[in-house]
Design brief:
- It is a single chain.
- The protein is an alpha+beta fold.
- It has a domain at 29-166: Acid Proteases (Cathepsin D, subunit A, domain 1, Beta Barrel), CATH 2.40.70.
- The chain contains 4 helices and 20 strands.
- The strands form 5 sheets. It has an 8-stranded mixed β-sheet. Strands 4-3-13-14 form a 4-stranded antiparallel β-sheet.
- It is globular, with a radius of gyration of 17 Å.
- Residues 1-184 form the Peptidase A1 domain.
- It is found in: Secreted, Extracellular space.
């Protein structure tokens, strides 16, 4: 079996000055977001942490990634523009998600629905975490797929709160000695899973 840990993308952990413990929460620097290879126009000040507000946190207790409304709106627009022309946007059947589309013309791949890939770009352009359909969208009923991100106006919280759904079947290694974190993309690319990786660790 392939040792996935040798092919991770590493980015430094960022200390959140709003907490007393150095790494009581895990924060990373996100410099940009790309969808289908194109940069999403973002207010870059939202990506910076100042007095505990803004920036990006990794949260296994948050079900779906939460984006500040201004970031979410930009991501939503870019995702719609990158969708195949034969995919129809539909009224969300649930209030939880703000963008849904018909699953009729969306084919399935080994990494989930064939939708535009989302790249979370860290401290430099070559260090990015690619999110495929299995982690970027969720099937909410037999006819509709929704972008699995939520938009909220966080006032005392990170601008990006990376949630558990986006982390499923992705390997993360927290290296607190070197103060960095390593990300894989979906383990389904290697035809393996977290459970299989645990057996060989």
């Amino acid at each position: 079996m392939i040792d996935i840990s040798k092919n991770l993308v590493y980015t430094p952990l960022v200390k959140n000055t709003f907490t007393t413990s150095k790494f009581s929460e895990y924060h990373v620097k996100v410099s940009s977001i790309r969808i289908a290879g194109k940069n999403v126009p973002l207010n870059k000040t939202m990506l910076k942490t100042k007095q505990g507000v803004g920036g990006t946190r990794i949260s296994t207790t948050t079900p779906f990634t939460i984006l500040h409304t201004t970031i979410y709106d930009a991501v939503k627009t870019a995702f719609i523009n990158a969708l195949s022309k034969n995919v129809t946007v539909v009224e969300p059947p649930t209030k939880q998600f703000g963008l849904c589309f018909s699953s009729k013309n969306v084919r399935n791949t080994n990494v989930g629905p064939d939708v535009p890939v989302i790249d979370i770009v860290f401290h430099k352009k070559s260090a990015f975490w690619r999110i495929y359909g299995s982690n970027s969208v969720v099937q909410v009923n037999k006819d509709a797929i929704c972008l699995a991100f939520e938009g909220q106006d966080q006032t005392r919280a990170p601008s990006i709160d990376i949630g558990g759904y986006q982390l499923e079947e992705n390997l993360l290694i927290f290296d607190l000695v070197e103060e960095k974190i390593g990300f894989s993309s979906s383990l389904k690319l290697q035809q393996t899973s977290c459970s299989e990786y645990e057996k060989t660790s």
